[in-house]
Amino acid sequence: MCCEKMVKNNNKTMAQNGKVMNSEVNALPPRKSVFIAYILWLFGGVFGLHHLYLHRDRHAFLWWCSLGGYFGIGWLGEIFTIPSYVRDANEDPRFIEEFIKKLQTHKKPPYSGKRFLFMIMIGYLFGQLANMAIPNDLYMGMDFNFLHWLIPFFVALGVWTVGNIGRERGVLWHCLLAAFAAYPIRYFIYDETYTILITSLTAALVFDHVSKEWLRTPPKRRGICERFFKFSTAMFIYFSLWGCFFYFNGTITDENGNEVPIHEAFQNFLASAWWTDIKQALKDMYTYAQHHGWYEIWKELLESMDVDGERNAYKVLGLSATASQTEITATYRKLCKTIHPDTVKDESQRATAQQRFIEVQQAYEILSKIKSARIRKNKKVVNDDNENDTIVL
């Protein structure tokens, strides 16, 4: 009897804990603001920042991939739908009421031409990107043409991702079957562009007529770490495909008009004397920093950049860096007399003389300002030292 009571109590406690955990998972997030959503839409909407704010991560990812729904077209179209997105994110009673009416009216989500077209476009984009990422030529003695059979997978993934935005959902395997069933048409149509387009259209039709259904349960509220991991992984895969395209199939035109593959150009660059010199310079800089500190590196970098224009000013006046203020002033007055635009008789050379005269004036002002600042700084240091000596005495 005692054992049975203990088991019952444990089960009761576990059930209560489970309810608490479920309530925490399904708890409403902090309310989202329409104003903030519009600000993010305006300044970062092309990259889906407003969708990330509203926890619409799939939508944000697709906006990243297509630059705002194919170069901003979808982004502009959202100007009137953002309030609805915010009500959805807040699970506003008004939105829930409207959603329940849709569930009662339509057994499955009705046809949306905008969503259907976007499924085809994203499926085509992903398929075409996968196609471009496959090496056209042999690489390291291997033929990678067999990877073309991954294209239907990426097409189906694009269609499925669009289909699962918002309060609609569907399974992936329907799209996969349709895409792989349609892709063999490539053996009859010898154009990969039309093949991918037909594959995407077929997968979108199957998803829209077979897979599509309502998302009846509230969207899961995932943590920031999980969202960041999934979003960054998807972005990494996407940009990796672009990287493969540029590396394997991209070309650079040399000075003779010949096209050189980027991967060959990259290998040649790594073997070039220029890159060898850069590596050695970086290595020497690191060794110097270990002995003298990174602050000395920073000071030398600023000096080499000539941020205050001192080096260039000495060069314009034709003086060395050790010239005194008296020498600077004398040289400046001498140059003003010899290069003054009024002394130039030839009209065609007057503009050049004017420019040279302005450069000399600016150089003199820069050096005078720097010299004056150093004199004031030195006087201050001397006065401080005298005061300290007086205090000690």
From TrEMBL:
It comes from the Eukaryota. It is found in: Membrane. Keywords: Membrane, Transmembrane, Transmembrane helix. It is a multi-pass membrane protein. One of its GO terms (cellular component) is membrane. SMART domains: DnaJ. The keyword Transmembrane helix applies. The chain crosses the membrane at residues 35-54, 60-77, 116-134, 146-163, 170-188, 194-210, 231-248. Residues 312-383 form the J domain. The keyword Calcium does not apply. May function as a co-chaperone. This is DnaJ homolog subfamily C member 22.
